[in-house]
């Protein structure tokens, strides 16, 4: 078998470039640390380069991390003498999104069959991501369109768009599908401190799609909901436990509380690869704690007195009873 070469000749993703892709023998990503000011693509030719890109959030978002894990094992098979050890390093690069380990394990399972088979499996994970996200986005749009009349105003958090996947997006994919049907109204997006995925990336994607939107600070989200500005909250997920608890970007839980209080739907859009049946509930999920500098500095400039300590949880747990529905490519789980 010949090792597959370039894939993905065609994409409608940003500027015709996929968020993450495979070219001949290496990975290509859009470097998300540079958005929204410039679209810079980076070639990742070694496992340490990939691990650094994952840790620094140059590639980020649960589905994109799943693809990064899968392509990473293909890269390890082609570029290292010990791909199993390299795969373990990729797997450990970030702990919370289960997709990363899922992508690594899928390709690792094919490695005993040979390197070409492993590369084919990695490319299958890549291509499947596009198809699955479009399917779940349509299903999420169907669900909302059937329950909310007229144009639907939505609040979202972090970035669950094309840039969190290979293309299209999960939560923003649902909004994109509603937009195409003429059923989307206004979208409110949170900044998503401290790394500003909402302010930098979600607003950029919404503008590209021609969707009317407004940026709010994270702490304003519950007031947007309480003031009746939106009909629903739609977010992505990094891991969904067997009992339906949802782990997503820090700041998701207050939105779910506010949505429950206001009596509006709180919808989680995620692929099946985000569902972790092996984890009984949210308390068993490791929440990534990132560096204090991300909180006490802004663009490298200190914003708190010297010596201030910070606790930088990257994710929180939204209990299942606050989640109205989880939408995947296969099902809608109403809880
Ligand atoms: O730290 P990040 O930017 O990787 O966190 C991303 C999120 O929390 C997203 O909401 C989640 O991964 C879903 S992306 C479709």
Word description of this protein:
It is a single chain. The protein folds into two domains: 14-129, Up-down Bundle (Four Helix Bundle (Hemerythrin (Met), subunit A)), CATH 1.20.120; 136-334, 3-Layer(aba) Sandwich (Rossmann fold). Helices cover 37% and strands 18% of the residues. The longest helix is centred in the middle third of the chain and has 33 residues, at 115-147. The chain has a seven-stranded mixed β-sheet. Strands 11-8-9-14 form a four-stranded mixed β-sheet, with helices on one face. It has a three-stranded antiparallel β-sheet with strand order 1-2-3, covered by helices on one side. It has helices at residues 47-55, 62-79, 83-91, 98-108, 115-147, 171-180, 197-209, 221-226, 252-262, 293-296, and strands at 20-23, 26-30, 41-44, 152-156, 184-190, 213-216, 232-235, 239-241, 246-249, 266-269, 275-276, 297-298, 301-302, 315-318, 325-327, 332-334. By secondary structure, it is α/β, with parallel strands linked by helices. It is built from ten helices and 16 strands. The protein binds 5-S-methyl-1-O-phosphono-5-thio-D-ribulose. Residues 57, 60-63, 97, 158, 160, 164-165, 170, 197, 236-238, 248-249, 314 line the site of 5-S-methyl-1-O-phosphono-5-thio-D-ribulose.
